TrEMBL record, chains A, B:
Protein name from the UniProt record: YKOF-related Family
InterPro entries found in the cross-reference section: HMP/thiamine-bd, MTH1187/YkoF-like, Thiamin/HMP-bd_put_YkoF
Pfam family, one: Ykof
Binding site for thiamine: L9, T43
GO molecular function, one term: thiamine binding
Domain of life: Bacteria
Location of the Thiamin/hydroxymethyl pyrimidine-binding YkoF putative domain: 4-83, 122-201
Amino acid sequence: MFSGAQISLYPMTGDFVSVILGALEAIDPYRKRFRIETDDLSTLVVGPPEELFPLMRDLFVAAAKSGVHVVLSATVSRGCPGEPDAEICTPTTDLGRVSQGADAIETSLAAVDAAARTGQTVAAQFSYYPLGDGRHMDEIYAAIDFLKESGVFDRAKNFCTKLRGDAGPVFATLGEAFLNFAPEGAHVALDLTVSANSPTRVR
Amino acid sequence: MFSGAQISLYPMTGDFVSVILGALEAIDPYRKRFRIETDDLSTLVVGPPEELFPLMRDLFVAAAKSGVHVVLSATVSRGCPGEPDAEICTPTTDLGRVSQGADAIETSLAAVDAAARTGQTVAAQFSYYPLGDGRHMDEIYAAIDFLKESGVFDRAKNFCTKLRGDAGPVFATLGEAFLNFAPEGAHVALDLTVSANSPTRVR
C-alpha cells in the first residue's frame, strides 16, 4: 500500500511566500507520521490514507486565516501499482466498503456528521478516479449518492463535483469519498481544488 | 464523445483579477469552436480534444507575460461515459494509437518536434488516468516511454510526471499524451499543473 498527495497552495498576493510558510506550521502535528518533500511545484506527503484530508484541512484553514484569496490544489492517491509498498502508509481504518453498498454511504455520512466545524467557509471541487477495473462508473455513482446527502453538496459540474460549506465537513466528505468507495487494494486517485476568500462569491 | 477541461489560473498577486482578465483575451480565437462557462472555481471549456492544450498554452503564456508567478491548474477529460455526446467535441484527428505501440510514440514525438517555441519557460506536472479497463498501467507506461524521449521530461515524481521547457513543446507533449495512448472511445482524464516565474527556481 502506498498513499499520499502532491499538494500546492496558491495565495493570490505578492506576499504569497509568507502566507505559505505561515500555514506550513499547521502540519507540524503530522510530521512524525508522514514523509514530506517540497519542490518548486508541490509538496509531497506520504502517509496513512485516513490522515491525508485532515492534514490538508489544517494546512488550508491556516492559509485561509490570512484573509487573502487562497486555493489549495492536490492530487491524492492510494494503491498505485507503480509505487512501492510503504509501512508509513499502513491504514489504521478499514478501506473500501463499496461492496456493502448502502453501508458505505451510511458510514461515510456518520463521519461527516461527526466532523468538527472550523469556522472557515470553503468552496471545493474534485474528480474521483477509481482505476484499473471495468466498473469504475459504478463506484463513481455510489460516491455521488453519498455526496448528494453529505450536507455540503453544491452541484455537479462537468468532470467534477462541487462542494461548499465549513472546511470541517467539506474535508471530511472528501476523505470519506476517497476511503470508502473502492476496495482496500484498489488504485484510487482524486484531483482536488479548494478555495477560500474568493471575491467572485462572498457569503 | 465529450471532451473538455476545467481550468483555473492563479496569479500570485493582489492584482490577480486583472492578470486573469488580461489573459482571457488569448482564448478569443477558440471561442467559436468551444463552449465556455466560468464560475468562482474554474472555467469550463468544451470542444475538440486536440485543441484543448493549444488553448491552455495560449491562455497560460498570456498570463505568464505579466511577469508575476502564475499557475494554471486543470482537469482535462475525454470520453467520460457520464457526459453526453456533443457535436462540438468531434475530433478532427485520429485518437488513441496505443494498439500500435511504438508508432504512437513516434507520431507523438514528431508533433512535439514540430511545436512552435513561445519564448516562455514553464514547469509542469501531471497525472494521466486511462479509466475503465484492466490494463491502465500498460497505457501509463507507454505514455511514460514517450515522455522520457520528449525533450521536456524533467523527472518522475510520486503520482505524477514533471516536465520543464518552453511552453510550446511542453503543452504539445501534454496534448500528445492525452490524445495518443488510449483508444478513441476510452475515458481518459489528466490532472495538470503548470507554473511560470516561480521564485523557487529561476532559470
